[in-house]
Amino acid sequence: MHVIRPNMPQAALAQVVSQLRARERRVAGLFDDAAIGIALIDLDGLVVAANPAWRRLLGLSAGDLTGRHVLEFADPIDAVAARARLTALLDGKVLTFDIEHRMRGADGLPQWADVTVSLVREGDGRPACAVGIAHDITEKKDLQRQVATAALEEQQRIGQELHDDPAQTLSGVAMEAFALVRSLRAEASPHLAAAERILFGLDDAQRRLRALARNLMSIEVGAGGLRAALTELAASADRPERPCLARFEGAAEIGDATIETQLLRIAQEGLRNALRHSGATRIEVLLAGQGERLSLEVRDNGQSFDPSAAHAGIGLHVMRHRADAIHAELSIESPAADGGTRVRCVLAAPG
């Protein structure tokens, strides 16, 4: 540390000042030449300064950024989650936070950024300002979306092939088995019971295969919105021996296609897990609006499992990834308070 003392010789004073200026130039160089975006933010959330990399990310000049609230450049949907975290940081309640969100600049197009915001304190510990560091991850997000789209298309292709080929073949064999049963019954054949068991097994395999094909061929969010899609999803799994119902509570309106699609995919994966592994006799899909929060739940009364176990499956990781993409909180209770398993996704209501 350089200290300027009273009555310091002129030459020594000049040397200290020179060293301080050199250090200031080095800091300024680091700020200006950094490959990642850096912004200084005051305690009101206003941009004090932004380096060239931050400005390039938004396609804006220094004059367009300085003095404006940092969340003006966040996508309105993502700003809901970012605002709560930024407020907590500027109030000194947390020291840092990380968030992936979309930023919108001069062209209005979303640019994905991985942003870390840290609090800077005064010498006495009081909050002084914040420093934001932004790394452009648009290409990464585009690649993730392409992979997810390709996986969904492959899943739908497999589902369609199961429906068109093996399911139809099984149907034909079952018809022949039915004709054989009728013939053996007319003859009072001792082989009738065995033939009936074969027919029953074929019918059961046919039902299972068609159910699998339906689950693989994804339901989409259409003009009726998420409510209609969830109703259709529940109806596709509803059986007399295992009811599957969709319920809606409160003002559970969303209106954002991206969020609705991700929530539908989470519900599909939660329902798929319940059907495959739980042995449930009742499944419920619930979409609820609670003030400024929305929640989606898939509940069942089947066998519980350990969500943290390695064998829990890739489906849970996929659900967490989808929840992260819309800044939602995903929780899995197994066993839930009333038994069975509850998959719950909570997010801030858009708008």
Task: Give the tags.
4 domains; 351 residues; alpha+beta; 5-stranded mixed β-sheet; 5-stranded antiparallel β-sheet; Beta-Lactamase
Give structural notes.
The chain has 351 residues and is of the alpha+beta class. It has 4 domains: 33 residues; 102 residues, Beta-Lactamase, CATH 3.30.450; 81 residues; 130 residues, Heat Shock Protein 90 (2-Layer Sandwich), CATH 3.30.565.10. Helices cover 48% and strands 21% of the residues. It has 10 helices and 10 strands. The strands form 2 sheets. It has a 5-stranded antiparallel β-sheet, with helices on both faces. Helix 6 runs antiparallel to helix 7 and helix 8 runs parallel beside helix 9. It is elongated. The two termini are 50 Å apart.
Question: Which SSEs are present, and which pair or pack?
Answer:
Blueprint: H1 10-33, E1 37-41, E2 47-50, H2 52-58, H3 62-65, H4 76-90, E3 96-104, E4 110-121, E5 127-136, H5 138-164, H6 166-186, H7 192-216, H8 225-237, E6 244-249, H9 257-278, E7 283-290, E8 293-300, H10 314-325, E9 329-333, E10 341-348
Parallel strand pairs: 6-7
Antiparallel strand pairs: 1-2, 1-5, 3-4, 4-5, 7-8, 8-10, 9-10
Helix pairs in contact: 5-7, 6-7, 8-9, 9-10
